[in-house]
Amino acid sequence: MRCSSVLPALILIWATPSLASEAEIKKGEDNWDGTVEFSASSATGNTENSVLGARFEAKRVLGRYSHDLKAAGDFTRTTKEVEGAKVTEETQNKWFGQYRLEVQTGDRTFAYGRARYERDVFSGYDGRAFVGGGMGHEIAIGDQFNWDVIAGPGIRHTVFIEPDSPDPEFKSEETEIAVFLGSEMDWHIRENVELEHDADATWTENNSTLESRLSLKTKITKTLSTRLAYQIKHETDPAEDREATDTQLKASVVLGF
Predict the structure, then answer these.
(1) Contact 225/254 with Cβ under 8 angstroms?
(2) pTM (2 decimals)?
(3) Where does the record locate the signal sequence feature (predicted)?
(4) What is residue 123's DSSP assignment?
């Protein structure tokens, strides 16, 4: 089963609100809220290093319906001098895009549909898509602390990059039934200081993916902030010739809208 055929149908089903719900939308509820953040660094000397990163998050509430968009990318290029000649190579090339639709079913419960596509060359896959849905619960709601959890089944399709060492059992593509668990926590520690933690777990029979992102955001003006984030990604059965765990520490400038 291909994710490309499931994705359009899932989005169409979930994204069609009823006329009654549209009538309940209040003035001011149809605006997008979100952030755009950028990070960059450059080093010269024995090694020339260029690092670029960007992240986009946006959310829109329409009555009982909530639309959530996320996308991010990181790119690193390193230039070294080898035997008198400069050699440039990529050392990081990854990005993802994600859409999630939530439909409130109770005071603190909601149904959701989620679609995600990602690419990470240096983790061994040329592309990986996930489509699924399930239920979520708002454990905590407040001005200072919010915590949501979600869980549900899905399908994950992976296109692998052929390893450098020959492998007669290498499979270029793989489609699996998956189970997804997610957690999103926001804590306003003090005025203008916010701690955020997002954790995801995607289980499949052959390989499970665990991700955690902890960030501290400090507000400078109404729309400008800084963010320090630490991210861990772990594959229980990584691709051939790849490490199981990747970590990243990043400082960014954040623009809110």
Answers:
(1) yes
(2) 0.80
(3) 1-20
(4) G
